[in-house]
Amino acid sequence: MLETIYFVYLQQNSDVIMAQKIIGREHEIKEIEALYQADKPVFAVVYGRRRVGKTFLVRELLGDRLCFYHTGLSPYELKGKKLKELQLSNFYTSLVRYGSDLKQVPSDWLEAFDALIALLEKQETDKRQVVFIDELPWMDTPRSGFVTALEHFWNGWGAGRQNLMLVVCGSATSWISDKLLNNKGGLFDRTTDEIKLRPFTLGECEKYYQANDIVMSKFDQLQCYMATGGIPYYISMLQKGKSLAQNIDRLFFEPNAKLKLEFERLYSSLFTNAEDCMKIVRLLAQKQQGYTRKEIQEQTKLSDGGGLSATLKALEVSDFITSYVKYDYPKREVHFRLTDFYSKFYLTFIDGRKTTNPSFWQDNLLTSSLTAWRGFTFESLCISHLPQIKQALGISGVQTEASPWKSRKEKDGAQIDLVIERADHIDNICEMKFCDDDFVINAGYDKNLRHKLSTFLEETKCKNALHLTLVTTYGLKFNEYAGRVQKVITMEDLFK
Hints:
Blueprint lengths: L6 E6 L2 E6 L5 H12 L4 E7 L5 H9 L3 E6 L11 H15 L11 H14 L6 E6 L1 H4 L6 H11 L7 E7 L2 H9 L11 E5 L4 H10 L6 H11 L3 H4 L8 H10 L8 H9 L3 H11 L6 E2 H8 L5 H12 L3 E5 L8 E5 L2 H9 L10 H4 L4 H17 L1 H8 L6 E7 L8 E8 L3 E8 L9 H18 L4 E8 L14 E3 L1 H4 L2
Parallel strand pairs: 3-6, 3-7, 4-5, 5-6, 13-14, 14-15
Antiparallel strand pairs: 1-2, 8-10, 9-10, 11-12, 12-13
Helix pairs in contact: 3-4, 4-6, 7-15, 9-16, 9-18, 12-13
């Protein structure tokens, strides 16, 4: 049996929870198991980027033991309609499905949650009562009083029920952060556990492919990751028996391709100010190292106030962008860069383009535009797998700080993809190179490397030893210049 397919059993009072075919998520599974077994009221928040597999995980683990399950309606699908009334009506349907005696749709959320309390009390049992509310942020429509009603449900009733396990999910991560995890009101510090689901790593994607009989070389798996970012829902649409190029065309370029239509739906379902978010994301897609807040404001013309800061924060906690400070730059010079791979791919090849070629990817595999995309996206892929790089360097337990560097004296001069500053007084100067064979350092590139290192030392006054580190696909070809590299990390290492 493949090690990627495993079974989880959770025993309590002779009841068994069984999860099959869950890829990865070992830590999260253990957390949910422990919460189920705990002899105390539980208010658990499971959150993460849309399509990352939150609902699947909870339903696989707890589905057979749910006393109540409800999913909020997407505001994106309900544009122009009476949102509060529709959300309440949908909640009423779920109540009735699980046996509620309520005769009509609740007039407000206080009444709705009181009906849920009545339902759970009617189901009274010594066993764990598991309530799962999915896409909770969608239910909090403008002026609905939803959060107040949720406070009433938990603080006034749920927190005193030893056998209650309330699990809520949400893709609107900024809402989860503001309204639940960092709530300053009645829900302050009331959640008992938070579980953030992140996209699959390369290694977890590989396990998924193996478990589903999808045959792909590691070289192609890298490129698949560059397009999908390890989002479980996206890779679940891959068809076995087709090449990666065929699958990319089917998902992105054919008429009505599912991921061609995903971009606007993705942002509109997560953010109330989706247009502003998409403006920022479109800008960040233009420059690998991103922009400062000031540059973003100037380029997008968005209001330079708290609103812009809040939008940047919302995009960051939702894992679409990342803030960082370049090596040896003032801490106030914060840059923001786009780190969502799907958005990068969409904005590079689809957004605003009028290509009607359903075989675009297959027909352009060897073009310079695809080669350039592979090159700069591989850099992002490597940075997203920093733990794997540290493991390959043998420094998993060493405290580090990692960031790119660029010369401030040379306008278009020396820059380094990634500097890993280590507590053991070594700096790994990382170069990322995507190649279809062993990488070759020629005389020109060797000269460029020497210039980078000397400029870096001159400008930063770095006192640590510099270890030139190459992160590449297959390896480094031995020649007279290869000895300059202290460590070679290959794609095999990135899958571990």
